[in-house]
Design goal:
This protein starts with a strand and ends with a helix. A six-stranded parallel β-sheet has the order 5-4-1-6-7-8, sandwiched between helices. It has a two-stranded antiparallel sheet with strand order 2-3. The protein contains ten helices and eight strands.
């Protein structure tokens, strides 16, 4: 087996975005007079796609009203709260040097491209899929299947990197090997604490 492509989740894998997401959604919840979710549900703000968050927290508000307000927010006000995960740019550079294709599959929306441009890392990715591109979202295999198809590689030569239970499920449903970053949920093929450990995994495959 030879690794020909690595597909990444975005939030809390390549970028540290918890503070940004929390402050951004605090503004939205406050605007609509809602109490911010408890710790248990707060995590869903960082993992669910835009439509799922609307259905879960704001379904009694008209869809147009909700999304009109959401898209009126200037993401530039929050971009400085996003940080690159230590070692992520080094890893992307390494993968490119090895001619390994790189995909990005995220439930984040259009702000994905804002962040990629801000950190000047868009050039590393051969495929970028956001929630806008997906008929179905993780844990359905559709997003990973679509990325694999566009990367033109075999699934047996793909690694998928995520940080949550939904990523493990999506990877397994898509029949690719899964690397789980930081968290210790069961079911992943590999668990890593340092993003650069992916280099060792590639060397051992």
């Amino acid at each position: 087996m030879m690794i020909r492509a690595v597909i990444f989740d975005f939030d809390n894998v390549l970028i540290d975005s918890i503070k940004q997401a929390k402050d951004y959604y605090h503004q939205i919840f406050s605007h609509f007079g809602r109490r911010f979710p408890s710790k248990k549900k707060e995590r869903l703000l960082y993992t669910l796609d835009e439509n799922a968050k609307y259905r879960l927290f704001f379904s009694d508000i008209s869809r147009k009203e909700f999304f009109d307000y959401k898209y009126s927010i200037d993401f530039g006000d929050y971009i400085k709260e996003v940080k690159l995960v230590k070692g992520s740019k080094e890893l992307l550079t390494y993968l490119k040097s090895k001619k390994i294709k790189i995909g990005l599959v995220t439930n984040r929306g259009d702000s994905t491209f804002y962040i990629l441009d801000y950190f000047m890392i868009k050039r590393y990715f051969d495929v970028v899929l956001t929630s806008r591109h997906m008929k179905k979202v993780k844990p359905d295999p559709y997003p990973i299947d679509l990325a694999v198809k566009r990367l033109k590689v075999s699934k047996k030569d793909v690694l998928y990197v995520g940080d949550d239970k939904v990523d493990i499920a999506a990877g397994k449903n898509a029949d690719v090997k899964v690397i789980l970053f930081k968290n210790r949920f069961r079911g992943a093929d590999y668990h890593i604490k340092n993003i650069l450990d992916i280099k060792k995994i590639i060397s051992s495959e």
